């Protein structure tokens, strides 16, 4: 049996993957089986979140080992592909490939071979060039010293120890900046202060106030970001920052789709290179969730000379759709932070001019590296002092100190153990019961049985809420998060059981399948609908309106004015009493129940557990066996992508002639 047939008959391919291979065979019946199978697998790889197919690890795409499949040797496979008319093999990672070839093979200098669907290689190429374009426009650093008093007021901590200050200062001097860190490390707080500085800088230069956009991949994440900025502005008001500066800052956030301007029934956007976004500063939160097509389109739409600041937690799960863009970019920036000696010199007026500090330590002068946080100082990891000028003009600052320590949930030690894959520590912390509001239900498989009343009470309160806005506000109080969708510990099964429980014994089973919506039902949208302005991951609730008609309500532009849809007219959606950790990215809930499957599964990873537990704001329950937890923490959720090497490549240089035009599709 051919490899393609074996893959198809084994149920490993989707219809779409198989159809792609078949269409190549129809066009040229002499196409070798290995090429057809590779085309189908490259298409399958995208559906599993990879940018392309890594030939030597193709078997990892399958859900389990299949003895019926005889995998070709990766070297032979590569040679057959390189010789095929369907496969372009450009030597340069930023040159366009032959438009006639639907597949692109890349891999050089010992890097593994990646086979792309052409469109995804174009997205990566466009993204790499677009990031270069944004990054090479370094803003003028002249005049930073005038900002020093305001800077010192905004960042009163001890200089040389404050990474938030370093991040803001760096972002004043660079146009492509990544500020990374776990939950509560002050990413948004830092942004608010940076925006005040940018407003002050414009005022001082007699320029118009900067046009600023705050965006995130999901509506919920955008709202959370705007909330945090509003809180930060309140603290800045209290700290005596000039109201005229604060007045220039945005207090609302938007989704990336809305920012870019969706077009009805089209994956294209209103804003792109030829019609760029009318913003001088674009700040995007939850960058780990952004997939390759969307990031490529965002970067394409950022105007020349504008600043792009990406915020994210690199330890979270990568985006569900193809990409793992954030980690690709971080790989190119380098694992450490790229603060060059040149940066340090330029930032000296800000970082070394704290009035408080100056009186204690007269300005040292001379050694610019003395400005940088020293890794030997407590709480500050290493920063390469004078890394060679990076080929990729981005800067990254990683914030480490958690600022939410006074809150009742004591999560940090567990989050660290999980992030580091340290299962002994994670288990002993969980078992010890010493972390406040963290509960471990070892080997518990069914919380709906053991904690039924407590869980049901919450969902019943949704049905009792007086208005849809109130019900939506309550919706974030509790969520069951699962690793998988199917199976006894999967989101689908749990939702069905919760629906039954809510229906009560008398009505159990009475709700016809065709009319599955009910008052108090929590919903999650599972596909993007540009027409409805509803996007994958949006959460809504069913409630009867004043006339008794059951409507589905989703957050609107104003928190107190949700949008109503007829349930039958909604795009694809599910119940959302329980949802997968993947779908919960970008959201937080007061109480989280993280339910692990009874048996190990390839989707389990330390990133999944980390993302799941860090969704909790007040209380965390983890249910599962030690064995499954150990297995999860031993695995990384990695994705195949060539972005890191494309960005790090010596040959990637911004050249307007190379900039591709963004095609539609994918995003
Ligand atoms: N330098 C600081 N001094 C005092 N409080 C701070 C500081 N930085 C952050 N905080 C506080 O810590 C909390 C978390 O900050 P913030 O929301 O900015 O973090 P974040 O990294 O954006 O979090 P998340 O990723 O969860 O959105 C806020 O209450 C904020 O006021």
Automatic annotation (TrEMBL):
Region Disordered: start-end pairs: 349-389
Cited CDD domains: DEXSc_RecD-like, SF1_C_RecD
GO molecular function: 5'-3' DNA helicase activity; ATP binding; ATP hydrolysis activity; DNA binding; exodeoxyribonuclease V activity; single-stranded DNA helicase activity
Domain spans labelled AAA+ ATPase: 173-360
Top enzyme category: isomerase
Binding residues annotated for ATP, in chain numbering: 181-188
Biological processes, Gene Ontology terms: double-strand break repair via homologous recombination
Gene Ontology annotations for the cellular component aspect, listed alphabetically: exodeoxyribonuclease V complex
Bias kind Basic and acidic residues: ranges: 354-366
Keywords: ATP-binding, DNA damage, DNA repair, DNA-binding, Exonuclease, Helicase, Hydrolase, Isomerase, Nuclease, Nucleotide-binding
Note: In the RecBCD complex, RecB has a slow 3'-5' helicase, an exonuclease activity and loads RecA onto ssDNA, RecD has a fast 5'-3' helicase activity, while RecC stimulates the ATPase and processivity of the RecB helicase and contributes to recognition of the Chi site.
Family indicated by similarity: Belongs to the RecD family.
Full protein name: RecBCD enzyme subunit RecD
């Amino acid at each position: 049996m051919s490899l393609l047939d074996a893959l198809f008959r084994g149920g490993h391919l989707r219809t779409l993957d198989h159809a792609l291979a078949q269409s190549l065979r129809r066009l040229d019946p002499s196409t070798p089986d290995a090429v057809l199978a590779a085309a189908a697998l490259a298409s399958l790889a995208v559906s599993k979140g990879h940018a392309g197919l890594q030939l030597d690890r193709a078997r990892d795409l399958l859900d389990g080992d299949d003895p019926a499949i005889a995998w070709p040797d990766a070297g032979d496979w590569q040679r057959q592909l390189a010789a095929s008319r369907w496969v372009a093999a450009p030597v340069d990672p930023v040159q366009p490939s032959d438009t006639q070839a639907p597949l692109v093979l890349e891999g050089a200098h010992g890097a593994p071979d990646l086979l792309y669907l052409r469109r995804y290689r174009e997205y990566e190429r466009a993204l790499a060039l677009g990031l270069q374009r944004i990054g090479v426009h370094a803003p003028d650093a002249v005049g930073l010293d005038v900002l020093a008093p305001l800077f010192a007021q905004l960042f009163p901590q001890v200089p040389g120890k404050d990474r938030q200050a370093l991040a803001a200062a760096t972002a004043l001097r660079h146009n492509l900046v990544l500020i990374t860190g776990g939950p509560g490390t002050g990413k948004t707080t830092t942004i608010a202060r940076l925006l005040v500085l940018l407003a002050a800088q414009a005022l001082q230069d007699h320029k118009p106030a900067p046009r600023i956009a705050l965006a995130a991949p999901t509506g919920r994440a955008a709202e959370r970001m705007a909330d945090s900025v509003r809180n930060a502005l309140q603290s800045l008001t209290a700290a005596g920052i000039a109201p005229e500066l604060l007045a220039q800052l945005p207090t609302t956030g938007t989704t990336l789709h809305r920012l870019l301007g969706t077009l009805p029934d089209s994956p294209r956007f209103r804003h792109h290179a030829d019609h760029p976004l009318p913003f001088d500063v674009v700040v995007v939160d939850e960058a780990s969730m952004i997939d390759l097509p969307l990031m490529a389109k965002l970067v394409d739409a950022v105007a020349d000379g504008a600043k792009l600041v990406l915020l994210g937690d690199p330890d979270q799960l990568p985006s569900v759709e193809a990409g793992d863009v954030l980690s690709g970019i971080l790989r190119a920036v380098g694992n450490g932070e790229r603060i060059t000696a040149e940066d340090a010199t330029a930032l000296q007026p800000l970082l070394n001019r704290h009035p408080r500090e100056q009186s204690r330590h007269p300005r040292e002068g001379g050694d610019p590296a003395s400005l940088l946080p020293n890794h030997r100082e407590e709480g500050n990891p290493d920063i390469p002092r004078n890394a060679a000028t990076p080929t990729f003009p981005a800067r990254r600052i990683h914030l480490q100190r958690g600022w939410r320590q006074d809150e009742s949930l004591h999560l940090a030690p567990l989050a660290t153990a999980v992030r580091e894959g340290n299962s002994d520590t994670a288990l002993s912390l969980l078992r010890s019961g010493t972390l406040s509001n963290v509960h471990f239900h070892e080997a518990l498989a069914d919380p709906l049985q053991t904690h039924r009343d407590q869980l049901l009470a919450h969902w019943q309160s949704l049905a009792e809420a007086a208005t849809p806005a109130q019900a939506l506000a309550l919706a974030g109080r509790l969520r069951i998060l699962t690793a998988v969708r199917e199976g006894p510990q999967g989101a689908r099964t749990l939702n069905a059981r919760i629906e039954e429980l809510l229906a009560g014994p008398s009505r159990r089973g009475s709700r016809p399948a065709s009319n599955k919506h009910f008052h108090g039902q929590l919903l999650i949208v599972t596909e993007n609908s540009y027409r409805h302005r509803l996007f994958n991951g949006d959460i809504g609730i069913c409630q009867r309106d004043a006339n008794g008609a059951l409507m589905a309500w989703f957050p609107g532009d104003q928190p107190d004015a949700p949008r109503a849809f007829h349930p039958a007219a909604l795009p694809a959606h599910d119940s959302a009493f329980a949802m997968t950790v993947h779908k919960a990215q970008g959201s937080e809930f007061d109480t989280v129940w993280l339910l692990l499957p009874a048996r190990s599964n390839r989707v389990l990873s330390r990133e999944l557990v980390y993302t799941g537990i860090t969704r909790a704001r007040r209380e965390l329950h983890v249910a599962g066996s030690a064995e499954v937890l150990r297995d999860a923490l031993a695995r990384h959720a990695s994705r195949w992508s060539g972005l890191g090497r494309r960005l790090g490549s010596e040959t990637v240089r911004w050249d307007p002639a190379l900039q591709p035009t963004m095609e539609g599709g994918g995003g």
